[in-house]
Amino acid sequence: MASLLTFLIFQSSLLFSGVIGLSWESWWTYDGISGPAFWGLINPEWSLCTKGRRQSPVNLEPNKLLFDPNLRPLHMDKHRVNGMLTNTGHSVLFRVENSTRQHVNFTGGPLSYKYQLHHMHIHYGLVDQTGSEHTINGQTFPAEIQIFGFNSQLYSNFSEAIHRAQGIVAISVLLQLGDLSNPELRILTDNLEKIKYGGEEVEVKRLSVVGLLPDTEYYMTYDGSTTMPPCHETLTWVILNKPIYITKQQLHGLRRLMQGDVGEPKAPLGNNFRPPQPLHHRPLRTNIDFNVKQAGAKQCPSMYKEVYYKANSWKLH
Ligand SMILES: *[C@@H]1O[C@H](CO)[C@@H](O)[C@H](O)[C@H]1NC(C)=O
Ligand SMILES: *[C@@H]1O[C@H](CO)[C@@H](O)[C@H](O)[C@H]1NC(C)=O
Ligand SMILES: *[C@@H]1O[C@H](CO)[C@@H](O)[C@H](O)[C@H]1NC(C)=O
User: Fold this and answer.
1) Is 245 an active-site residue?
2) Which residue intervals define the domain Alpha-carbonic anhydrase in the entry (predicted)?
């Protein structure tokens, strides 16, 4: 019934969008009958959102993690980049200037290829209890920053890579409420006033993407998808095993952003997260060697497993 309804509404919206020149982009949301449960039904090209079995985000359960000694530290180039910060109506997007001569590359970690930084998204909640897409042992965080790069050894650009094997890497940084913000995050949040409405954008200069990463070499990794339509299953996800911090004021700044334009602001942009998707037997690998924690203990199948998020149990402020 619900899907039939969506279909009917979709048919009329197609005519409508044809008339006023809107793209497909406008026809999905994070709630209601164009929300995550229906993305795969709205557009045949988004069918993976419903049918796919390697979808993202997921809930990362510590007792399902597998230590993989082949996983190396992740490397990211340190230099600063310029780009545009945009309120897309679905998310806060930072897109690296495409004319940059010196690209920021990612290598190592679970990656077999070199990836080139392309853009980042911020997902966040309208209340502190929700916001992140990935969850740790069922716990959500107030926000999540996702940093995307494309495989520049095999493909010539992001749009090509997103359709292809080993095309994209997504690095996820979970955000925790704190009294002192990560300094690079402040560069982004200081500009939010200028992108209050959907479609607005502002230039941001000299951002260090490395500076947005928490101080840890530990991560969890799995094969998944984009968390927005079309839900392509070409992503290697890397979830860093420590949060960075965002203040209450910065979260308020994010929560003031609206989906629509000045004339029709629509709903607040926040709560732009897709719920966790089933794992369907995918392995969740990690470079956290749980054995090392037990001095002198031999390799043993009942090893004690500890992840930062569990060890420092998440407190609501
Ligand atoms: C960068 O992107 C803009 C807008 O998308 C485009 O007009 C321009 O040609 C691009 N420049 C390069 C060097 O790719
Ligand atoms: C990143 O890789 C590209 C080639 O893919 C190279 O031209 C560029 O210099 C690299 N960036 C750095 C900082 O090494
Ligand atoms: C991306 O690369 C493909 C293949 O080389 C090319 O056909 C396409 O025009 C490129 N797209 C953009 C946006 O540059």
Assistant:
1) no
2) 26-288
Q: Which ligand is nearest to the CA of 155?
A: 3
Whole-number CA gyration radius for the chain: 20
> What parts of the chain have a pLDDT lower than 50?
1-22, 297-304, 310-313, 315-317
pTM over 0.85: yes
3-state secondary structure of 146: strand
Q: What was the pLDDT predicted at 298?
A: 46
Q: How many Å lie between the centroid of ligand 2 and the Cα of residue 22?
A: 37
Element of type H or E holding 252 = helix 248-255
How far apart CA 300 and CA 104 sit, in angstroms, is: 40
* Atom 3, ligand 2: residue with shortest CA distance: 103
Taking CA atoms, 49 is separated from 123, 147, 163, 233, 234, in Å, by: 18, 21, 14, 9, 13
Contact (Cβ atoms closer than 8 angstroms) between residue 142 and residue 246 = yes
Active-site pick, 30, 115, 124, 155: 155
The alpha carbon of 102 and the centre of ligand 2 are apart by a number of angstroms equal to 6
